[in-house]
Amino acid sequence: MNRIKTVKGTREFYPEEMSLRNYLYEKVRAASESFGYQEYDGPFIETIDLYAAKSGEELVKKQSFTFQDRGGESVTLRPELTPSLARMIATKQNELSYPVRWWSFGPFWRYEQPQKGRTREFFQWNIDMLGVASPEADAELIAVAATFLRSVGLSPERATIFVNNRRLMDSEFDALEIATDQRLEVSNLVDRRSKMESVKWDEYALELGLTQKQLDGLKDILGNYDLWKKSEELTRLFAALEALGVKAYIKFDPNIMRGLLYYTGTVFEAFETSRSLKRAILGGGRYDNLLADVGGNPLSGVGFAMGDVVMGIVLQEAGLLPEFAQTPAPVLVTVFNESLLLKSYALACELRNAGLNVMVFPEVAKLPKQFKFADKMKMKAALVLGPDEDAKGQVVVKNLLSGEQVAVTRELLLDMVRGLVKSNAAFHPTGQQG
RNA sequence: GUGGCUGUAGCUCAAUUGGCAGAGCGUCGCCCUGUGGAGGCGAAUGUUGCGGGAUCGUUCCCCGUCAGCCACCCCA
């Protein structure tokens, strides 16, 4: 078949996939709004300069979709939202009421090799609080994440949010006398630890210029799951998480560093427990300097992002995908013959005016074909307006699940159809199962 | 950007050392001129991803390319 191909890494949302996307959007909205966050959005296209400051070299130089527009300007499809958010805040910095609590769900693009859990086009939930720099504010964001996980059926047994603090790690690195210009490489080293064999990881560390003593010290730190007790921030954070009722989801992990350069304090990442996907389902942290970097006055923020691709795979593999209703409309008005075509259209109009979602078969066709169609579409009721009914001022209403049908007058029709649509609602659940 | 595997009907996949392109599911039609789901019968759909090469001859071998998957890199 000689179809024109889709652009590599882009996604087509057939109705079923669209249902999943909208389901995630609904759950994201519910979790965000339950904590009082407001929805916003930024431009889908930005200049590369916006990201150059702090987003990380890989993301800017290798993973951005950058091209020239017709005016010769270099533009970028947004690879993330936080820098846009920082600018938006900076623009209205003096007129906003703080703390600002904002969330967003929209498309992003990153030019990378598509593979499981990674496409070049994806949807991402972003949620941030700005203007309060406290462990309790960090805890709130983590609690929003946990609330979302719970709402899609991921219990604490199935998903964990791992938490660390960059300031704590920095002071530990200070104690080991790791040089400032080595910090970034050491961060990457820590990030990579779970993915490498320990012997090779050791070699790699020494190659980076760490002494054996520093390496041993580093390994002590990374294996110390009580390290958080040394950090007042983390101690307060975990207390707040307890009060927020989400402690069951949380684990301290000194190995969590995160790649983005702008994180300065608390950092966290959520993983599905089986780790069949080695990717974080969400991640974020506190950034103290980002606003100043885009030209605003210093203002601290905390937030996280969650991609739809990994989330969708996790839910699917856990058997937590809801059974999405495929029914475009619950009621079909059949068309009996040419001379009754417009009467069927008028009948459908009448029902729609009464607030029902109604489809008319768009042409004259044999009834079996029309019923078959209604069946495939999982519709609940089919209406027949044939010569007999027309003569008596009636309409036949058929219950497509039971097969029963009755002829009713126009006066009784509405209640009858409404009753069917409601009573059969349970056959096409939109809520979650299992 | 690097490496590995894969690419055959709408979908999932067969096809013997290189010798006529197949099945299941789905779709459509009929059985059934006022009634769907089950069943029976029948039909349609192929540039074997694309381009080149070797060969009497290729879905099969070789090269290139594109796409998907997997791993690396990075990250949501």
Description:
The protein has 434 residues and is of the alpha+beta class. 38% of the residues lie in helices and 19% in strands. It has 16 helices and 16 strands. The chain has helices at residues 15-34, 49-52, 57-62, 82-91, 135-151, 166-175, 183-191, 198-207, 212-222, 232-243, 290-293, 308-317, 341-353, 367-376, 387-392, 410-423, and strands spanning 38-39, 45-46, 65-68, 74-77, 100-109, 121-130, 159-165, 250-252, 266-272, 282-287, 301-307, 331-333, 358-360, 381-384, 394-399, 405-409. Strands 1-5-6-11-10-9-7-8 form an eight-stranded mixed beta sheet. Strand 15 (394-399) and strand 16 form a beta hairpin. It is elongated, with a radius of gyration of 28 Å. The relative contact order is 0.11. Residues 426-434 have low confidence and may be disordered. The protein binds one RNA strand of 76 nucleotides through residues 1-2, 5-6, 8, 56, 58-59, 62-63, 79-80, 108, 110, 112-118, 122-126, 191, 195, 258-260, 279-284, 304-311, 334, 336, 366-376, 382, 384, 386-388, 396, 398, 400, 403, 405.
Short synopsis of the structure:
By secondary structure, the chain is an alpha+beta fold.
Averaged pLDDT, please?
88
Helix content: 25-40%
Shape: elongated
- Order of neighbouring strands in the sheet with most strands: 1-5-6-11-10-9-7-8
Please provide the count of β strands: 16
Number of helices: 16
Radius of gyration: 28 Å
Secondary-structure content class: alpha+beta
Q: Say what oligomer this is.
A: single chain
Largest sheet properties: 8 strands, mixed
Uncertain runs are: 426-434
* Strand content bin: 15-25%
- Terminal-residue CA separation: 40 Å
